[in-house]
Amino acid sequence: MNPAIDTAQLDPEIRVQDDLFRHVNGPWLRTAEIPADRATAGAFVSLFDEAEKKVREIVEGCRDNPGDDEARKIGDLYASFMDEDRVEELGATPLEPELAQVDAIADVAGFVRTLGSLERSGVGSVFALYIAPDRGQPDRYVTHLMQGGIGLPDESYYTGDDFEPIRSAYVDHLATMFGLAGLDEPEVRAQRVMDLETRIASHHWDRVACRDAVKTYNLVDREGLEQLLPPFDVSAWAESAGVPAAAVAEVVVAQPSFLEGLATLLVDDELPAWLDWLRWQIIHAAAPYLSSAFVQANFDFYGKTLSGTDELRPRWKRGVGFVEGAMGEAVGKIYVRSEFPPTAKERMGELIENLVAAYRQSISELSWMSDTTKSEALAKLEAFTPKVGHPEKWKDYSALETDPGDLLGNARRSLAVEMDRELAKIGSPIDRDEWYMTPQTVNAYYNPTMNEIVFPAAILQPPFFHADADDAVNYGAIGAVIGHEIGHGFDDQGSQFDGSGEMRNWWTDDDRAAFDALTAALVSQYDDLSPEGADGQTVNGSLTIGENIGDLGGLGIAYKALQLALAESGEPEPIDGLTADQRFFYSWAQAWQGKVRPAETVRRLTIDPHSPPEFRCNQVVRNLDAFYAAFDVTPDDALWLDPEERVVIW
After folding, report:
1. What pLDDT, on the 0 to 100 scale, is given for residue 2?
2. The pLDDT of residue 66 is above 90
3. What values do phi and psi take at 446, rounded to 5?
4. Does a cis peptide bond (omega within 30 degrees of 0) precede residue 463?
5. pLDDT for the residue 568
6. Which of 58, 190, 256, 646 is deepest in the core (most CB within 10 A)?
7. Are 326 and 421 within 8 A, CB to CB?
8. 506-510 contacts, C-beta under 8 A, 24 or more apart
């Protein structure tokens, strides 16, 4: 049996009772270097790198030995990205047709029509659109509209004093890009765009409000949409974008007040600013596919300034990413042939079954929830759909036309094909076989409107999943991931959806109040935490509450599931002096091995709904009695939390 926990890598200078994260990962944290082309390093990144190498073999094989039509297209896409001579030769010329469209705009109506015509090219718009099941009627698809229009990560970047250096760097970046595109007065244009984006950002909802499933569900008909945004001719825009009338007959508007604010800016007096803003959107969308001057300038701001990354990723890595973005499932179909053995799916099936059983037991025994709400919660649990490894039905890429000599054209055509694929959902039955991640993605997710948990093949590897390790190790890592995703169905937002995926209040008032009190206590715990490299900036407990509930419930329920498994197999003998319970928590800490550049730490604290790795590890175990018992934690130890302050929700 694979021991999976290397005790030689533990840090004897740091007690597990004081800091589980650094006791398990200390030597690695001291010696590991973040790659120059990365903002982070750790378990997730290592797995991503391994998957990326496998994908490189796949796409280079398709380029050198095109077999079927999909393989040829994969090869074309990669060849077009790797043809540096062709890209350098073209310089800024690929931008000329779209920039000429902007030059021809005479009024707001023309601006709206042009926005529509550029929608298929991936050019940023004043709002973002996507097609998804209707939260109120999850058996049908509906168009969703979200706020947009800004180039910085978050509306707070436009006002916060701490972000003034970034704002200044952003204006410089805008000027650089305008200059590279051959436009005159680049500094004037840059400031004009910054001023407009600042006004746009003033109407943005913050990220805490944006994650509220109820507040962001505002179903309006075509007339209601036009009333929110009178200057925007929806018909003209849709016709230019090739969007069928059915796709805008009803729309879920996430932030209605944003559209009302946007309406005050879509006036002829602001047209010069809007035209420069649109020129910037065109340049920015195309930058990764243009000559090295554009690529480097794009990286200097978005990679180096915002995330602290030292070097641009090698061209082959960016090429692999481009292919995956355009034909990810075609690549995944090849990937799973060698990287996803049937035994992995079987073992995952057992783990999921035990995690669901543990949730069932835990929900049944909750002291703070009434039988009425428990019945609804258990019904939702039984309705969960697990998906493991890869889709049963693969996407069809026959509509995509590729050209090995036309990189930007390939990018635009792939975006147009995906847009058509999404629009075709309107009026069609819900596709319950669809995946929102490729098999080669190192991640997992929960989808509330389908009540499904999804685990791509690439995450089913050490340190998350060991095919030949003991149960304690697997339950502490991939078991906690499974529990985390199930937990999203019962977090502050997921708990507002029932087992059919409908957003419906299935709680009694008293039970919801009790749940809210528990989540408020967890928010308070995380609000006080500040990671290394953050210069005192703290976690936003309200922004991260959903993921924190997922982590807490995931690990707690994974521990219960481990006990169910051991009750059948018997308590194992210690391995390397570690009991099963200790190995469970060591595996958890090993999975969260990670370090982040300071600039990236600050960026994530502002916009990321996940807590930093050290807190995803340590703060969770402080709330679990099993951790205290496993390591004899006492009030004198740093990880001690008084019993009355410990939060256990599920």
Report:
1. 59
2. no
3. -120, 135
4. yes
5. 87
6. 58
7. no
8. 506/373, 506/376, 506/377, 506/380, 507/373, 507/376, 508/370, 508/372, 508/373, 510/370
DSSP state of 367: S
Residue partners of 649: CB distance under 8 A and separation at least 6: 490, 515, 518, 519, 522, 549, 552, 553
pLDDT bin (cut points 50, 70, 90) of residue 4 is: confident
What six digits make up the tokens of 352?
């999921």
Measured CA to CA, the distance from residue 609 to residue 268 in angstroms comes to 38
pTM of the model: 0.94
Q: What is the pLDDT of residue 271?
A: 98
Q: Give the containing element (helix H, strand E) for 378.
A: helix 371-382
SS3 201: helix
Any residues with CB less than 8 A from the CB of 424 and at least 6 apart, and which? none
pLDDT over 80 at 1, yes or no: no
Could you tell me whether strands 445-447 and 452-456 are parallel, antiparallel, or unpaired per DSSP bridges?
antiparallel
pLDDT digits (tens, 9 = 90+) for 457-491: 999 999 999 888 899 999 999 999 999 999 999 99
Q: For the chain, what percentages of helix, strand and coil (3-state, to nearest 5) are there?
A: 60, 5, 35
Instruction: Take residue 245 and report the two structure tokens written for it.
Output: 């009338």
> Could you give all domains of the chain from N- to C-terminal order, each with its CATH number?
108-270 (1.10.1380.10), 342-384+451-650 (3.40.390.10)
Interval 572-616: pLDDT, tens: 899 999 999 999 999 999 999 999 999 999 999 999 999 999 999
Cα gap 430→133, rounded to integer Å? 7
Pairing of strands 250-253, 385-389: unpaired
